[in-house]
Amino acid sequence: MNWIGLDHVTLRYTLSGRGEHTLVLLHELGGTLESFDGLMPALEQRFRVLRYDQRGAGWSEKPRAPFFLADHISDLRQLLAMFRLTEPVMIAGVAAGAAIAVSHALETPHAVSALALCAPALTVASERVRYLAERSERAISKGMAAITDTSLDRSFPPVMRRDPAAYLAYRARFLANDPVGYAHANMALADVRLEERLGQLIQPCLVLSGTHDLLRPPEAVRQLAALIPHATYAEIDSGHIMPVQAPEEMAARLYGFFTKATHSPLVRA
């Protein structure tokens, strides 16, 4: 593991793999770069893979001041610049990570060659905004233990706890979140409104839903995919936290999609 200092925050990251093309993995709200551990044996064989703990998460710096989606986008751009990854990159984002991926692709379209949007959180309903605010306040006042089980009952439902060790490890990482950083990340997600801009995406997109996803159910994800000009939609046997709940199937989907994408003009440019 390594750390890198950006303009206003220090992030933990890993850059691994021996491929010619770069794949960036963006974790979910409450996750860390370890969310993708189960995908790495497959993806590292073909791609150079960058994954990192987003600001406020994992072992990255925990800002006390609120931060927003724009800050996440700035962090990603700075990382790419500091590693001199000037060629178009491929990005896979899970849940809230998909919002960062889409925003970056919309603002710098020729810097992104392909996208995988997994259980994408690209718009937040008003009742969900209230829930995020209440959860943030409870995390700060009571600690992560006060919100962990109610949160994971939806994002990691019992039907997806087939591997007890994987679930317990994920739960432990969730509990270890800094409450303030987690609260800020919740409220950054509350501002996401990307649905109306999806038609502007020029990249090929793989859009994945999980059969057992209670937060972004398949029909809702399918409707989002229909708004994207070059989208391929698929449903996998997973809940919301795909890389932990269905690592082999998700890895196979990403491997196939991004391997095909490496032959597209945006990647070769």
What report would you give on this structure?
Helices cover about 40% and strands about 15% of the residues. With about 270 residues, the protein is an alpha/beta fold. The chain has one domain (about 1-125, about 195-269): Rossmann fold. Helix 2 crosses helix 3 and helix 4 (about 125-140) runs antiparallel to helix 7 (about 180-190). The longest helix is centred in the middle third of the chain and has 17 residues, at about 125-140. It comes from Azorhizobium oxalatiphilum. InterPro entries: AB_hydrolase_1, AB_hydrolase_fold, AB_hydrolase_sf.
List key phrases describing it.
269 residues, alpha/beta, Rossmann fold, 8-stranded mixed beta sheet, 11 helices, AB_hydrolase_fold
